[in-house]
Structures are given as C-alpha cells and as structure tokens.
Amino acid sequence: MSLLSATGIEAGVGSVTACRGLDLTLKPGEVWSVLGQNGVGKTTLLLTLAGLRPLRAGQIELDGASLERLSRKKRARKMGILFQHSETLFSTRVADAVMTGRHPWVSGWRGTSRDDEKMVQEQLDRVGLEGFDQRMVTTLSGGERRRMEIAALGAQQTKVVLLDEPVNHLDLHYQVHLMRIMLEEWQRRGCAVMMVMHDINLALRFSNRLLLLFGDGETCQGDVASVATESNLTRLFGHPLQRIAAGKETLFWPL
Amino acid sequence: MGGSWVWQDWVIPGLALLLALLMGLSLSIGSMPIDWQELGVTLRTGESSVSATVVFDLRLPRALSALVVGASLSLAGVLMQVLLRNPLADPYVLGTSGGAAAFALLVIFLGLPYQGIPLAAGIGSVLSMGLLFLLARGEGDWSSARLLLTGIVLASGWGALISFILSITQGAEIHSMLFWLMGDFRAVSPGLTRWILLALALALGLFVARDLNLLAGGELRAQSLGVHTRVLRLGILFGASLLTAAAVTLSGSIGFVGLVVPHMMRRLVGADHRRLVPASALAGSCLLVLAEMIARTVLAPQQLPVGVITAFVGVPLFLYLLGRGHRAGSP
C-alpha cells in the first residue's frame, strides 16, 4: 500500500531540473531523506509532490487518488508540509498559529471545537511548548518558532508528511531532540515522511530510505544501506567522503 | 477562539454602542443644535418642522454616508493589507481611490450619462489595484518599498489626471476639486447598492476570515492547508476595489481610513480576521461619523473637507509605522 506515489515525474523550475522520469513510492512507516547539493531542486521536488508547483510530466497519486483531481481540502487532510521559511505578516498568539493546522478539518461557518483545542494543546506539549499558547509568535526564538510550526503540522493530522529542512539553523541538541519527537509520533501513526536534509549524518540516522538528486534530473533511491555508499555520496556532493563505523551507526566524514 | 469570555469580545458590542451614540450626537450637534428630546420626537414622528428638515435632509444623509464610507474604506484596507502583504496598504495611499475618482470624473468630463459614474469608478479602482498588484509583484517576491513606491506613483498619476480634468473643465469650482482629491460629504444618502455591497463584503469577509488569516501567513502555506488562494486573492482584489469605488463615488477620496482603523483594531482585538473584519467595519464608521461631525463644527460656519481631518490622523501614523519597520502588524 502506498500513501504517495509518483510515476515518471519531471519536476523543476526555470533551468533547474530536479528529477526526470522519477518513480517514487512512499509507504507507511517510511522516512525518506532527500539529499543533494544546493540549488539542485530539492525544495522544488518537495513542493511539486505537495501539489504546490506544476508538474512538468508524470502523475502523482495521493492515497490512491490522482492528486490533481482531489479537492484542496481533501488533499490538505492527507498531506501536510513544513516549509523551509515561514512568514508572519501579523503577529498572532501561538495557540492560534498552531490552530491553523486544523484548517482542513474545520468547515465554513463552524468554528473550531473543543477537540481542536485539545489537539492544539497536545501538539504544543509534544514539542515542549507547554505554557506558550498565549505568547505572541514574534516573541519566540528561532528554535521555539520551528517547534511551533511542527506542532501546527502535527495538528493537521496527515498521513503524508513533507518536511523542508526541518531542523536547519537550530542548535545541535535541538536538532536531535526535534527529529526524535517528530518522527516518533509520525511513525507510530503509520505516516510516510519525506524530508529534505542538509546534514547527511542526521539524515542517515533518522531515515530508512534515501533519494539522491545528482542534478540535471538524475536520481538514485533505495534503502539507506544500499544507497549510502562512499562512491554515491562522493559523487552527490562533489567532494570525497569517507565512511566511518561508529558503534551501530555509520557516519560519513568529508575528507 | 472559544472558551472563556475575554475582554476582546466586548470590543465589537462596544463599538456598535459607540456608533449609535455618535450617530445620535451627529444628528443633534451643529449650527442649529437639536437637543436629544427634540431629536427623539423628530425621529419618532417624522413631522415636518425646521428640525425635521435639518435632521432628515441635511444631517442624517451625511451621517449615514459617513457610516457607509467609513466601514467600506476600513474593510477595503483590511483586505488590501492581506492581498498586498503589507500593513501600510490603504486605498488612498496606493491610488485605488484615485483610480476610482479619475474614472468617475472622466464620465462627467466626457458628458456621459451620470448613471455610468459608479461603473466607471468601479473599473477605475479595479484597474488601479490590478496594476499595483502586477507591477509591485515583480519576481513573485513582495518588496514593501516597491509596493509603496508603485502605489504612491499611481496615486499621484491619478491625482494629476484629476487636476487636469478639473482645470480644463469650464466653471469647475475649487470646492468640487477638493471633493475629488481630499474627500468630503454632501447631503446625499448612501443609496441601496452601497448598503448591499457593504453587507455582502462584511458577510463574505467573515466567511473567509480564517482563510484570510492563513493567507497572511504565506500563500504557499495557505494553499497547503486547502485554501484556494487564487480565487481568494481575486475575490479580495475585486471586493476591496468595489468597496473603494462605492466610497469614492459617495464622498471623493477620503484618505487613511483603511490604514488607521485596521491598525488600531489589530491592537485592540488582535490579527484574527474573525474579529478584525467586523471590528474594523464598526470602527471605520465611528471614525468617519466623528470626523464628519468635527469637520462641520470645529471652524463653524466654515466646513472643512473630511479628508483633511482623516489625513491629520493618518499621515503621522503612516510615517510612524514606516519608521518602525512595519514587520508585524501588532506589538
């Protein structure tokens, strides 16, 4: 059973082609990391999978239905995305910002319910922001803000989760902590996760599948053990990398 | 957001009460004072008397016009600020009012039937806002400076066109020039169409209030949460333009209402459009009913254009917000 599947897709923007003729299947419990150099089109691919950028070729199915034909609301109930950067035009309270994740589940005139509020509270607790609900968004630190966005994504309760550099620019201990709490629940709920990652070792540690974008549309995918080889990654980053065994973990060290 | 009854919930009923009070005051104050008792009798019976003439023919139409124009301009401001992603957006500052006024004047100048004025004003404001939207958008990124510059240039362009038309029109009085450039009220009632437009805009604004909140948090994110952003933005563009046109054809270009009112209301009720939309409409009405009252009493028997009063409030606030870096709309 696949939650999100792409057949023969080409994604790109301007002169950049992220992938060409790519077949991809995201299954429950899978955590994918997308790796590649800057400007290779990782974000573009993610946005295309989310239906936010036009597809150049191929087809995408979300939970067995054509992505194009699904209504926006149904799409938003099945697939959520965390953006690399967030915008705030007007500052709001943290609770309201997290509540925006409930939007696809609340209709028209009907307001948000007690259950929605409970969900917001749960998600805030999960990311360690209990007691922050009345704070204004603009008063949060970078890390707190990222956690708030992750809480909003959690409140959306989707089966497919797309993350664009979820822990970039965060302190080291935050990175590991956040990855853990995010993935724990999503894996428990049988979600399929795909994330664009910057740090290769963090990616290897937290994902079980890899998608490498070499640029110019060339890709390589598979489970971590088979794809994460010295030769693949050296080619990917255009810089020699050495594989180091560290206990149960495998690390790649730039030479 | 549900739960306990917080003080913000009192703002909207409070403003409604204030508006009723100001309306009463506006009918009673003036060169011929009418006390509340007499006013009550006049309003109840509607018998013809001197005070009835003053109330029904002079003060009530102006006060109702102020009410409708204030609410329309404030709503237009709220909508434009979301569409253009800038808390400084205002129909007057960015030339939307100017576009409506210029097109309305064009109809008069060309000797076309007067019934065409509202339509022309509507076209003028949609055109002006559409131009602004396309020109300021650039590469898809919103630059605040570019938006404001584009809008201000558009506004002065329309202003020049208005001045040109007025200066070559025979017998154009200086006062009518002020009317189109600065904005003022005449003893004309708002008319049914404007009431309907305002009611419709208010209802739709409340209906999409949560979508507006999302759009303010970024277009892509709003899309990913199921908002049909293209339809919403088009709706905002037309809604804000038509509200502006409705206001301008009634009262000329009264400035800064759409800037001042949403800003104040965001401080009072927060940035949630479910509260901001009704609060801004009410506060806009209050502000203009008050301004109209001040304009005709403060230097009586001299009458000031109402746009002068709103500019006195709006210009310093605009400069203050610009200086502060207008990153977030509330503290």
Brief summary:
The complex is a heterodimer of chains A (255) and B (331). With 255 residues, chain A is α/β, with parallel strands linked by helices.
Name a few traits of the molecule.
heterodimer, A: alpha/beta, Rossmann fold, 9 helices, B: 331 residues, ABC transporter involved in vitamin B12 uptake, BtuC, 14 helices, globular
Task: Give an overview of the whole structure.
The complex is a heterodimer of chains A (255) and B (331). Chain A contains nine helices and twelve strands. Chain A has helices spanning 42-49, 72-78, 94-99, 114-126, 142-155, 172-188, 200-206, 224-227, 230-237, and strands at residues 4-13, 16-26, 31-36, 57-62, 65-66, 79-82, 160-164, 192-196, 209-215, 218-223, 241-246, 249-254. Chain A is 33% helix and 29% strand. Chain A has a single domain, classed as P-loop containing nucleotide triphosphate hydrolases (Rossmann fold). Chain A is α/β, with parallel strands linked by helices and 255 residues long. Chain B has 331 residues and is mainly α. Chain B has one domain (7-324): ABC transporter involved in vitamin B12 uptake, BtuC (Orthogonal Bundle). Helices cover 73% and strands 0% of the residues of chain B. Chain B is built from 14 helices and no strands. Chain B has helices at residues 11-28, 36-45, 50-83, 96-109, 116-137, 144-168, 174-182, 192-207, 209-216, 219-224, 229-251, 257-269, 273-297, 306-324. The relative contact order of chain B is 0.17. The model of chain B is unreliable at 326-331 (pLDDT under 50). The chains are: A alpha/beta (255), B mainly alpha (331). Chains A and B meet through α2, β6 and α3 of A and α9 and α10 of B.
Q: Tell me the CATH topology of chain B.
A: ABC transporter involved in vitamin B12 uptake, BtuC
Rg of chain A, nearest Å: 18 Å
Largest interface here, residues on each chain?
A: A-B, 39 and 32 residues
Give the biggest beta sheet of chain B. none
Number of domains of chain A: 1
CATH class of chain B: Mainly Alpha
The Rg value of chain B, from CA coordinates, equals 20 Å
